[in-house]
Design goal:
mainly alpha, 78% helix, 264 residues, 11 helices
Length: 264
């Protein structure tokens, strides 16, 4: 436990925990083309933070509840055939704007918006670290439990129904997992960048893997490496940790496009 007294160790462990969950989940974001979906959910978490502060509730809980409600709302729109890229884009930006306006209207309350927008991983406490890893393990367990069903539902609704799998139920599981990752990641990379941590490691891993399982494992590994390098590197060059993590992930993505034999 003495190791956890170091803010650097806590920051690194928090980054590793979020990356562990975001990597495999991000594969489904890539396969299902849910980038806007994840952005809408992540941006809504700022509104959850503001509401939680307003009623003196845990920030993690507020972000989780509002992110989950937004994800369910967007998922419902998709089921009705109205969740186009335009609708998702409008929803994502509107949710962020509402969160910022709500935060500005809170009387006698100051919220570190920069920390929630871009992450403040160096201020992670032991309680925050516990929540991050509990959330990461819940998401990892959920994906492991539903892996085959989620893959079948991803291939197509008709195929999943033929296999006796309810695609809406699997979408609900993904929605819950996404909300948990967003709530966990808001302190690590922030609401604006958690979508990148879901998307970039998975997209980086894709050209090098021939099976979904390998892609999920490699995406988690890439995310964890980026998190560790981002935390350590930011201390040496004095840059924000969250954006540093995402910048390193982008560097890996560019290299994957240059080196992958499947893309030549």
């Amino acid at each position: 436990m003495m190791l956890l007294d170091s803010f650097l160790i806590r920051a690194a462990l928090a980054g590793l925990g979020v990356a562990l969950a975001a990597g495999p989940l991000g594969c489904f974001v890539v396969w299902r083309r849910m980038a806007y979906f994840s952005d809408a959910t992540a941006h809504a978490s700022i509104l959850g933070v503001a509401l939680a502060v307003a009623v003196d509730a845990p920030v993690f809980g507020g972000a989780l509840v509002v992110a989950l409600l937004m994800a369910l709302a967007v998922s419902t729109l998709a089921d009705r055939g109205t969740a186009s890229d335009t609708i998702l884009g409008v929803t994502a930006h509107a949710a962020l704007a509402l969160g910022l306006v709500t935060a500005s209207l809170l009387p006698n309350v100051r919220i570190d918006l920069m920390g929630y927008l871009f992450g403040d991983i160096l201020s992670v406490t032991k309680a925050d670290l516990a929540l991050v890893w509990i959330g990461a393990l819940v998401v990892a367990g959920l994906l492991t439990w539903r892996w085959s069903a989620l893959l079948t539902a991803t291939l197509g609704a008709d195929l999943s129904r033929a296999a006796g799998i309810d695609p809406k139920r699997e979408q609900l599981f993904l929605t819950i997992a996404l909300a948990v990752v967003v709530a966990c990641g808001i302190k690590v990379v922030g609401a604006l960048l958690i979508g990148a941590l879901l998307l970039i490691p998975a997209a980086t891993a894709r050209p090098f893997c021939r099976t979904p399982e390998r892609m999920a494992g490699l995406a988690a590994l890439i995310g964890m490496v980026c998190a560790a390098l981002g935390v350590v590197g930011s201390l040496y060059v004095d840059t924000p940790v969250g954006p540093s993590i995402v910048s390193i992930a982008f560097g890996f993505f560019v290299l994957s496009r240059l080196w992958s034999p499947r893309l030549r």
